Queue: 4 jobs
Job 1
Amino acid sequence: MNRFFWLALTLILALGNAVAQDAPAPQYGGEVVVSITADPPGWDPSASTSQEIPRVVYHNVFEGLVRFDRDGNIVPALAESWTVSDDGLEWTFTIREGVMFHDGTPLTIDDIIAKFERARDPDSGHTHTAYYAPIAEISGSGNTVTFSLAQASSSLLYNLARPDSVIYPAAKADTQRSQPIGTGPFRFVEYIEGSEVRLERFEDYYLDGVPYLDSAVFRIIGDPNTRFAALQAGDIDLIGVALSPEQFLQVQSDPNLKGSEGTATTEITLAMNNSRGPLANKLVRQAITHAIDKEAIVNGAMFGLGTVIGTHMSPAESYYIDLSNTYPYDPERARALLAEAGYSDGFTINFELPEPYNIERRSGQVIAQQLSEVGIDVELSVVEWGTWIQRIFLGGDYDMTIIGHSEPRDINIYANPNYYYKYDNPVIGELLNQAESAQSAQVQLANYQQIAKIIAEDAVNVWVFSPPYLVASQNDVYGFWTNQPTPSINLTEVYRAQ
């Protein structure tokens, strides 16, 4: 390793020690300004897969029956407890009493039933109806809600903790994209497109003692240098997403700032359209994987901050399996596979990078250079985020792109041939069904890992690395999440030391 890498590592260790200092007791009042990278496409996390939405609203504005805590544990939220029948087919949740929505109306059992009837309706516009497919019937009695399942579902509780499962007033379900109304510790006050989102303390929040802040602002700053300059100048208080590694290191030399390095569920993924041109050929996809030096990308683009991966899961997840050596960096092997596929003279391909995401763009530029060295001529372009969502993600109109997939436990996307990878393998669906009906965590784990092996061998995508979760803040800001078990900049326990 070079001298700079060791210097960077030394700074990281020093920074980690600095952050570990004891925090002062929580204090009430004040405001925190947090940066995000792009305008979310609406505010209902069940209507879009964009992770920009839950970063703002998950457990800040919206809550579900259960939720993830800062360590990834599933804990009570609107449900204070639950029981499961011996056969796993009935899940009964006891709902807290006295919970109010931000519009002043009480949370009712009917709101909860309506939410999940909508969630499992394939015509409702809900993005992940498959999460709720095992549910045969939803009923309520007194202060309980019961999910009766057609078959046991080992993922049900996990899916109920996801942002997709947040609950809002049944009578206002169609307005949540623009006027979110939840039960969380903050109420949604104002959204200025391209500028900021403002939240304020919800005085009728059902948990005593939180939140500590009077208000919070999420400021939309797409450019990473502008974002970091705003932190250094004190114009924002916290960067909780897309902090670059060199900026993370600079925090160490600024007495007004602090930072943390934690785990995340993100996979930086070179996505390939498995139905288009040369990429429909497995040999070509294998060649592309062999042509990419992932270690060089982590060391060069990330200053060593990241873990090389070989399939769709991050080391932070319980079913992670290290498949990084399935197709190791081998340019000669890449050229041989291209020749075997009929592309001995190479080919030209379009590679589109998403505009607001610096790490992805930086990695993509290195990848383009590496592919050129084996004869693949890459035509690079940068696309605006809204265009990326509509044309690439939703429309599947692309050759190659790169993005960080941050939603946890989402390997089920490989069972959907209409997903933007356009990968069609019915075996994946069969394995997912086996995982769902598994009576033990070990069986479920084995099925997930078998899926991971299949998609790695099929070279569906190139899973480059999993980045750490990097945060930088003003010295007087405490209580933020240092790990990212689900995409959320959770401000419930954030406070400012006076």
Job 2
Amino acid sequence: MHTVIDRAQLSPNVTRLVIEAPRIAEIRKPGQFVIVHRAPGAERIPLTIADADPGHGTITLVIQSVGKSTEDLVALQPGDAIADVAGPLGKATELLDHGRAVCVGGGVGTAVVYPIALGLAARGVEVISVIGGRSKEWVIFEDELRRAGEVITCTDDGSYGRHGFVTDALRDVIEAGGVDAVYAVGPVPMMRAVAEVTRPFGVPTFASLNAIMLDGTGMCGGCRVAVGGKTVYACVDGPEFDAHQVDFRELADRLGTYRDFEAHALEVSHRRAAEKLEAPLHAPEGSCLIPGLATAAERQEVAAAAGERGA
């Protein structure tokens, strides 16, 4: 069991949890992730390690609430516990050891790029972080990233920092010259746009891919992505790859595979909560392919709804 030590709300749908995981805290490296299993019957969720404190034996996870499983996870309070945390998984980020790098973060991806920025700064690399959100309340980790170097903040609506997208600010930085590498983490459309900005300049660009994962060891094949025309596995070959070689269209398509199931599972969860039902939502471990739905009737309801939506 891994006890939750601290919890903080960073934006309307992003929460930071600090949890006990001493062995992981000791050996994790920038770019690596863990797979979190909140409780029996719950979904396994891959989460990048945003920070670690080996002295206190803790790691920091930053979680965007987008569905039933992540809602359950961010509802945990200090003193609550997570059943299993497996990791560190994935390859560590290949960091520059000199020169100048730009770290681009969008939304919750800003927390993922944070350990990369710190790792670069520790090597003596000059770091510029370009981060963004829809508006001021969606911008996270700005103060933390200032520990690594200059931070350029962008908002879509101009309510804070620079008005516009992170790609606009990135282009200005690159055109000024002297950029040796770009590290991008965020929504698929953002990472794809970053790759297209840097491509004409020939700047090496790395994207952290948030592919679907189950086991984190390459066995399930759910996280397969096409990079340079070859099939690779984000959990063991990544999660970071040459952004100029990634097939972002395929990645986006695969990420949408279970969207209808997830949306309906969340709908069922909210309805049950509204009705104040006390019946457990989770099935016994391994008995349900749709996390969060316990009964056969509920599973049939989700499947039928997904079929109507053309899933």
Job 3
Amino acid sequence: MLGLLRRWLRRRRLERTRIPATAWQSAVTALPLPDRLNSTERERLRDLATLFLYEKVLEPAGGLELTPEMGPRIAAQACLPILNLGLDYYRGWSSVILYPEGFLARHEYTDSNGLVHSSHRPLIGEAWERGPVVLSWADVAASPAEPGYNVVIHEMAHKLDMLTGEVNGLPPLHRDMKVRDWSRVFNDAYQHLCRELNQGRPTVLDPYAADSPGEFFAVISEAFFTMPDMVIEAYPEVYRQLRAFYRQNPLAAPTG
């Protein structure tokens, strides 16, 4: 019943308003590989982005002043991974905190002796479990100019990963996908990346992907949408798994 009501409310919202055409064109231009979406996909993405901005609150921090183009630009990039999945994949959280630039994040952890430690580290993005997504606007704006790099997609991939609990690189797979296949393919690729870095060899992915399996999934999701040709060449089996999960093929020519 709640699902039916939510779908009805969303349809009503879209009947009343969508992201204005001028703002949407600017947002689409900033997308990775903007020419790969056909007209139908662009309109579906526009609907998702409109609903994203309605259901999530954009909260400025660190003295940032919001401008009209910020919301559509963030929403378009955030909704690209769920273009064929749906907005319910972003359930359980309600806000995007936006800083003008990188920010210091404070983390606490308990060591094996039970002692609590506190640390601060500079970040450009962060996703909290059952909490907000935090972004640096400067890095959001810089994303289109840097292949393989997209802080919004990175943090949204973490949110998808969190749907199954721990951030470990295993999002909720579809019924026609097998966990053992996903785990084998991603573990092999992750170990390969770690070996390449340990041997001082250049890598296709940002070295940050070797930080953990969760970061590997987020970084290679960025690459899947921004430089898919490099991903399929270096990690063809991972590409096939990502294509099955996101239900998209960034290398396919647009139709229609």
Job 4
Amino acid sequence: MLTKRIIPCLDVRDGRVVKGTKFEQIRDVDNPVRLAEFYSDNGADELVFYDITASYEGRALFTDILRETASRVFIPLTVGGGINSVEDFDRVLKCGADKVSVNSGAIRNPDLITGAAQKYGSQCVVLSVDAKRVGGQFRVFSHGGRVDTGLDALKWIRDGISRGAGEIVLNSIDTDGVKNGFDIEMLRAVTEISSVPVVASGGAGSAKDFVTLFQKVPGVDAGLAASIFHFGEVQIPELKNLLAEKNIPVRRRVFP
């Protein structure tokens, strides 16, 4: 059985890690390089970096922070924000990313997924989907959750996979930062139609929420969270110990 991954998410704005609730009420957290090193040293399986205002501001994703992080951290890095072309993939991968996350850029130009997958392989292409309930439908939002695209999330995910996306990160705007648990309903719907790994994002408030996630949605491959890790509410070694006790397979180091 494949091990479940635990992935801290670093939302970066103006060179700092920040965190909000339902994509709003943003507050400062820490230096991204220092935080990335901490997570790497403490058992994180991967890291996700999002430049959360790159698409909204119409600029290229940060590269200086990425280069410094990649030189110090030796677990896989997924990087997203302002990815609008295959050239952006090339730039980010050359800075040290292992995978590149696309969201708004792929919505504007779905062929971006196809072109990147053909050039770099599906394993490098992560389709990040910010979804929210609208009129009984899971609707895709873009530009950091600011713009309702009108796209049905399940149809968009199917399309992205058919174009070559090798992983899906599902960000539930409804549960983001609320800390009442992952969006089980939405995740079940996505894992039922996905043929590639699915990463759950949005809503973790305790270690038990990860247990619930993996028990109720066994098709989910990883749990991603931000604030509970950033503010020390959950420590990754203790979380992995708990998951192992519940017979949920995780990759563990020997921690005191």
